[in-house]
Design goal:
alpha/beta; Rossmann fold; 4 helices
């Protein structure tokens, strides 16, 4: 499947989700027929470390990660890289404090499970 929106963009995307099957498949979809570097991690601790050392054009992340280093770990992303574009992928509704937080550049929200 060709996705013209991403064609020849050379984007770097990070996927953060405990569901490694979902994360890996999402990365494969993004890489397929596109010039996208996509990788995934399954913990926010790994994510914070990667974001501290790398620049990503977009982060796709779940908001509920087991063993979170602290409750507001998404705020750390905003502190490390102000203006970082993020899309939330979650089976939980977006908390109002995240929705209203000016530090986060949340550009979209997808509800799990994905429907056809």
């Amino acid at each position: 499947m060709d996705t013209p929106y991403f064609k020849d963009t050379n984007m770097k995307i990070l996927v953060i989700d405990e569901d490694e099957f979902l994360a890996e498949n999402l990365c494969q979809f993004l890489k397929f027929n596109n010039n996208i570097q996509a990788r995934y991690v399954s913990s926010n601790k790994e994510a914070i470390q990667l974001i501290s050392q790398n620049q990503f054009d977009l982060i796709l992340t779940d908001i509920q990660i087991t063993n979170s280093i602290h409750d507001n770990w998404l705020l750390q992303i905003g502190d490390i890289n102000p203006g970082q574009k993020m899309i939330i992928i979650s089976s939980y509704p977006i908390p109002k404090e995240i929705e209203l937080c000016e530090k986060l550049n949340i550009i979209g929200y997808f509800e799990k499970p994905f429907d056809n």
